[in-house]
């Protein structure tokens, strides 16, 4: 069985500020949730593995800052990324519009084979929903990308999101050596992301 084979993939999280990118990553990596999360400065780097039937996928995760002033740094993080999770908040239609602009940017400037997932976060706030599941699902289908609604707070679909991405990544082609850190990336102290 080839499950001992580990495949490394660079993964970037993109999206507007306060949509829950860091919360999703912390839930996935550490299975923790913090109600009040400090905004990410620049980007944070974490790693986590996903065990599939036939192999192990190790994600090298770049959690990027959502504030507009950091947007110009984004290409440094998504360059060479095999996968991207673009996060929006189901209670905030502007964040969905922002997510669409990230999809367009990645399709235009990212790796041509990047696997993209659209994550509608904060699904635990159903009563405050402003972005309908069907609208986002239709958009995802039109653009050939994955779509799941998640809740970092109650962990709903968080692991499933990363597992579905891992399944879509090519495991048979030889992998290029990926740089662990983008050139000239601002380095966070050891806080990782929170």
TrEMBL record:
<dbReference type="Pfam" id="PF00071">
    <property type="entry name" value="Ras"/>
</dbReference>
<protein>
    <submittedName>
        <fullName>Ras-related small GTPase Rab5</fullName>
    </submittedName>
</protein>
<feature type="region of interest" description="Disordered">
    <location>
        <begin position="173"/>
        <end position="194"/>
    </location>
</feature>
<dbReference type="GO" id="GO:0005525">
    <property type="term" value="F:GTP binding"/>
</dbReference>
<dbReference type="InterPro" id="IPR001806">
    <property type="entry name" value="Small_GTPase"/>
</dbReference>
<dbReference type="InterPro" id="IPR005225">
    <property type="entry name" value="Small_GTP-bd"/>
</dbReference>
<keyword id="KW-0547">Nucleotide-binding</keyword>
<dbReference type="InterPro" id="IPR027417">
    <property type="entry name" value="P-loop_NTPase"/>
</dbReference>
<dbReference type="GO" id="GO:0003924">
    <property type="term" value="F:GTPase activity"/>
</dbReference>
